[in-house]
Amino acid sequence: MLLNAKIHDIKIIHPGLAIFQVAANDWQFPEFKAGQYVILGLPCEAPRCIGALPEEKPHKPDTIIRRAYSIASANSNSRYLEFYINLVPSGELTPRLFALNIGDPLFIGSKITGIFTIDQIPLSRNLLFIATGTGLAPYMSMIRSHLLEHLDRKLCILHGARNSWELGYKAQLRHLQTYIPNFAYHTVISKPESEPTK
Question: 133 phi and psi, to 5 degrees?
Answer without folding.
Answer: 55, -135
